[in-house]
């Protein structure tokens, strides 16, 4: 561990020059890279180390055709072109893995009979893990195109029927085509978005 900030070039890659991509180069993403991506993502913190995020890496033409049934029309072309579309999901039975993931204290009782807490915790933490996924992908040289324009219930039916997994958001992954980028939109100023208390 170090208390020194990352170099400007690393910060540029992760934040300042990284963009949301909607067009993709014809370059594959190997399963080895996807394994690396998951390995890095899995190290981010979650409540009780519960790690509720589950991923489906949709790479095949058949898988993409199924997924496109649930997409808004504006998201179809870019998803078909992307080498991979990650379905970022959460497992409503994530708490069953606590003996492995959090062996120092059995916290399954918090969740076993509390569906509202389970849903809230699974969704919040899979959202955080999805953000880790984006940053890990950028660190590995991939570009990302996260999306929420889809029918969640249809994705759940198509990919998670009969399971305890539920979709959260989608993220196209690959090597973006920089020539198709839009100008970067502004961000809120610190004075607008932040307060000291």
Automatic annotation (TrEMBL):
Record-linked InterPro entries: Nitroreductase, Nitroreductase-like, Nitroreductase_HadB/RutE, RutE-like
Domain of life assignment: Bacteria
The keyword Cell inner membrane is annotated on this UniProt entry: no
Key words, A-Z: Flavoprotein, FMN, NAD, NADP, Oxidoreductase
Record flagged with keyword Phosphoprotein: no
A Pfam family recorded for this sequence: Nitroreductase
Similarity-based family: Belongs to the nitroreductase family. HadB/RutE subfamily.
Descriptive protein name: Putative NADH dehydrogenase/NAD(P)H nitroreductase CEW83_03785
């Amino acid at each position: 561990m170090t208390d020194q900030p990352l170099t400007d070039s690393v910060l540029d890659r992760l934040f300042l020059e990284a963009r949301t991509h909607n067009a993709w180069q014809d370059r594959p993403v190997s399963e080895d890279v996807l394994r690396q991506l998951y390995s890095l993502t899995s190290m981010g913190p979650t409540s009780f180390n519960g790690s509720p995020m589950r991923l489906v890496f949709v790479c095949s033409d058949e898988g993409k055709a199924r997924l496109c049934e649930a997409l808004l029309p504006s998201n179809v072309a870019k998803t078909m072109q992307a080498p991979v579309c990650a379905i970022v999901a959460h497992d409503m039975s994530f708490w069953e893995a606590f003996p492995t993931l959090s062996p120092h204290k059995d916290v399954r009782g918090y969740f076993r009979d509390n569906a509202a807490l389970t849903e809230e915790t699974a969704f919040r933490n899979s959202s955080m893990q999805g953000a880790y996924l984006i940053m890990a992908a950028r660190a590995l040289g991939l570009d990302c195109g996260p999306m929420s324009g889809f029918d969640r219930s249809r994705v759940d039916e198509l990919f998670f029927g009969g399971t305890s997994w539920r979709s959260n958001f989608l993220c196209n992954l690959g090597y973006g085509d920089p020539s198709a980028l839009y100008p970067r939109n502004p961000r809120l100023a610190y004075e607008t978005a932040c307060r000291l208390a």
